[in-house]
Design brief:
With about 400 residues, this protein is an all-alpha fold. It has 19 helices and no strands. Helix 8 runs antiparallel to helix 14 and helix 8 packs across helix 17.
């Protein structure tokens, strides 16, 4: 623990930047946006189905936009790149606050998904991974804590704030709070010295970057990156449907979800030391074991007591994966073109959050039992976990 405090205090400027960028990426995350959906549906006179279709559309478009601009973090100083991304997020929140027409709502949602969920997270993870070497795992694990902290704090603040000042003013107040905290953290970033990729690593970057779409290892990393957010987003969206089919109270479902945030944070704290000790590639298939156990467990019983450990196991895999996947990308591709490589995987991650709910909804609409759906999810995770073991076999990828 002393080493943790010493590490954090010794690198507080970069770590503060990374943590805050992950925290305020919440503005573009589904859990945050869902807090405003009832107000948008009522004030703009749109249906929930229409909003869902709009949301999926803008999410898919934003996913491809991440690849278009995410690569420039390799060419622009982190401070300037971060300022541009954060400015885009603030503009998007401003547009949402003035959404008196469905077109403005759609534009605001597109931008907040692009800059918030996509580029804020991309900037934090890539910037931290590129500027840390020996303690990269600790740095990624600590800064990724911004996600569960945002998931815990923001709903507690936003719900009463909307009731007090309305949803438009709430967005503006939140934007001001973000600027007060984030702009000083960006200003405090100083150039980091002492870590320069060696010639062999630069050569590896250029070779891999030219042929990565033809490489099996790229697609192994891609499907692994895809699976957990794909499944978790669907579970979050349909959690009350799951509870209803299994006969659980709504309050129990809400209580169980808290276990996700808590165990996600715990796993993030542990992930840094694990990566620094064992490497991301060795841990790459193993972090999926908890999520596999979660889906096997919930497919076998309808007892309500299964839901808290189910969410705890999802949180563990999500927390571990957040650090491990970024570590794998830099271990495989090096740091020279990390922004470009990560932008592709960030696109896949955002796409997974758009595709998960309709895929899950398809099975529900076609009368698959919830236990069968969960069993299918378990098989999906198991197959990807087996595939992920091949990444460590250099002769086969």
């Amino acid at each position: 623990m002393k080493n943790w405090f010493r590490f954090v205090l010794g690198n507080k400027r970069l770590l503060n930047f990374g943590f805050l960028f992950n925290f305020f990426s919440s503005f573009g995350q589904t859990f945050f946006i869902s807090l405003f959906v009832p107000a948008w549906v009522e004030s703009l006179k749109i249906t929930n189905a229409a909003f869902g279709a709009m949301y999926a559309t803008v999410t898919i478009i934003s996913a491809f936009m991440i690849s278009a601009v995410g690569k420039y973090i390799d060419q622009i100083p982190l401070k300037l790149y971060g300022l541009l991304v954060f400015s885009g997020l603030m503009v998007s929140v401003g547009i949402l606050s003035q959404a008196y027409h469905v077109v403005l709502l759609m534009v605001g949602l597109f931008m907040v998904r692009w800059f918030g969920q996509g580029l804020m997270t991309h900037t934090s993870s890539t910037g931290i991974a590129k500027h840390f070497d020996l303690n990269r795992g600790k740095a990624l694990g600590f800064t990724a804590l911004g996600h569960p902290v945002g998931q815990f704090i923001l709903p507690l603040l936003v719900v009463p704030l909307i009731g007090w000042v309305g949803w438009r003013a709430s967005l503006l107040y939140l934007a001001v709070a973000a600027m007060v905290l984030v702009i000083p953290s960006l200003w405090a970033i100083t150039p980091v010295t002492g870590f320069e990729p060696d010639i062999a690593e630069k050569k590896r970057d250029s070779v891999d970057n030219a042929n990565h779409f033809k490489s099996l290892k790229f697609w192994i990393i891609a499907v692994n990156t895809f699976v957990v957010p794909f499944l978790c987003t669907a579970i979050f969206l349909y959690q009350y449907s799951i509870g209803q089919t299994k006969g659980w109270e709504i309050s129990w479902v809400a209580f169980s979800f808290a276990f996700y945030a808590v165990f996600n944070a715990v796993a993030l704290l542990l992930s840094g030391n694990l990566v620094d000790r064992f490497s991301g590639i060795r841990l790459f298939p193993l972090y999926l074991i908890p999520v596999l156990a979660a889906f096997v467990l919930i497919s076998l019983t309808d007892s309500k007591w299964v839901f808290p450990p189910f969410y705890a196991l999802l949180g563990i895999s999500s927390g571990l994966g957040s650090t491990i996947k970024t570590a794998v990308q830099i271990e495989v591709y090096g740091s020279g073109n990390l922004g470009k490589i990560r932008s592709y995987f960030s696109t896949l991650l955002v796409l997974s959050t758009a595709l998960g709910p309709p895929a899950f909804g398809y099975f529900i609409d076609h009368q698959f039992s919830m236990n069968t759906i969960m069993g299918i999810c378990a098989l999906f995770v198991f197959s990807i976990m087996l595939l992920s073991f091949r990444l460590g076999n250099k002769d086969r990828v």
